[in-house]
Amino acid sequence: MRTYHYQGFRAKVEVYRANGTLDFNWTQKIGNANVSVGIQDANNVQNQLIYENTYRPIQYTNRNNQTFTMARDNWGNPLTLTTPRGIQWQFSYNYPENYPVQPLLSMAITQQGYDGSIRTPTVYEFYQTTDTSYGAVKGLLSRILSPRPGTSGTGEQVETRFYYTAKGNVALISAPGPNNDGRRLTTLFFYTVDPWGGGPFPERQNQPVAVAVYDKTLTLADYTAIPTNPSLRDDRLIFFERYRYDDRGNLVAVQDASGFTTNLSYNASDQLEWITYPQDSLNGVQARERFIYRYVGGPLYAVEVYNGSTLFRSYLSAAGAEGEVNATVVSGTRKTDLGYDAQYRLRSIQGGLNATTGQRHTTEYAYTDQNFPQRTRYPNGDEYNMPTQIKTSHNAPAIQMAMSTPSQNTIMRAIHYGA
After folding, report:
1. Cis-peptide into 100, omega within 30 deg
2. pLDDT 10s digit of each residue in the chain, 419 long?
3. How far is the C-alpha of 227 from the C-alpha of 171, rounded, in Å?
4. Residue 310 burial by CB count (10 A; 0-12/13-18/19+): exposed, middle or buried?
5. Are 138 and 120 in contact (CB under 8 A)?
6. What is the DSSP string of 129-155?
7. How far apart are the C-alpha atoms of 304 and 330, rounded to whole Å?
8. How far apart are CA 65 and CA 48, in angstroms?
9. How many of the other CB atoms lie within 10 Å of CB of 201?
10. Which residues contact 173 (CB under 8 A, 6 or more apart)?
């Protein structure tokens, strides 16, 4: 049960266990426009959100008093994002005069390290006109200039280009080749015709009927010619797959370059119901997977694996009154039981029956009144208490954590990261 007590710009929330005792509580802080400006926990430790123009967050301070800041331009787009360590992402925009009627010209993202070092920016450019003969669609991404692999801060960049069909589907992506040796990798997406057989198909959004990758540079003219030119289609081809869909847009078949086909079927709510894999090349048996839902449109609760028509293995998840998974069963054997508290936080995990000891081992969890993990108790009796506060130093990053066992021995561990 939860109770809410409102007073001015604060709302105190109290969460109770089933026996009526208080579990934990916090205070929600509310801004002038009913926006969240942070919370305060039971120990009066709080985080904070600061906004500009009422609804645009520009600063966040967490409960460890670490602050993230953001600066925005007049359009509300971020200009800088700075972490507590002083690492900063810088965004620059090239707006047309009549933006946003006309699309953004380009955008660059640069990272600055806490030591002031500047990485080579990544630049995104966008088409300004629609020209289907060139594969250009106004407003869509035209190319990305990204840092050249193996360099740092040199300003060297490599180019990835994008071309589209008249309906806005990606038709061709031309990317740098392996090891940046000057070659190009070209990926083609076919929507209305399958170069390896089939069609014509109606072009649908994000539903290619074939995808092919070539270890060479190809043009839009090549893209158009490939379906009727087998020699061009197969020259330096390194990968292709074929896809089919039902009338509702669900993927129903995937075929690889060797002709092996995986079939998929769905129920009336478009939930995946069967996967039938290609026949085994040795004995002709097909593996299948069946997905069973509590009701059509409902949550998944069982997966069955078949070797041909023989049920080989099954995975079942039992659920509680609110649909939470509280047990797993594999091929009729109970493997796991999950216990929750009244707030549906995980309280215990009980494993399957140990064949040697005849016991089921249990791991238990406890939480603080601020809703943080507090303690983990393992089956052998070891108990690890979480620190009430994790402190980090940004000059020499480290995290120190105290772990106590039932013998009251304390182990101090320091986890050091690169300075």
Report:
1. yes
2. 888 888 888 999 988 887 888 888 889 999 888 899 999 988 899 999 999 988 999 999 998 899 999 999 999 999 999 999 999 999 999 999 999 999 999 999 999 999 999 999 999 999 999 999 999 999 999 999 999 988 888 889 999 999 999 999 999 999 998 776 778 999 999 999 999 998 899 999 999 999 999 999 999 999 999 999 999 999 999 999 999 999 999 999 999 999 999 999 999 999 999 999 999 878 888 999 999 998 999 989 899 999 989 999 999 998 887 788 889 999 888 889 999 988 889 999 999 877 777 788 999 999 887 788 899 999 888 999 987 655 544 444 444 444 444 444 444 444 444 43
3. 13
4. exposed
5. no
6. S-BTTTTB-TTSEEEEEEEPTT-SSS-
7. 10
8. 9
9. 17
10. 160, 161, 162, 163, 186, 187
The CA distance from 155 to 258, in Å, is 43
Structure tokens at 138: 């106004």
CA distance 65 to 86: 14
Q: Which two tokens stand for residue 287?
A: 């593996």
Distances in whole angstroms, Cα of residue 362 to Cα of each of 82, 224, 349, 350, 353: 43, 62, 6, 4, 11
Per residue, the 3-state secondary structure of 199-264, as one string, reads CCCCCCCCCCCEEEEECCCCCHHHHHHHHHCHHHHHCCEEEEEEEEECCCCCEEEEECCCCCEEEE
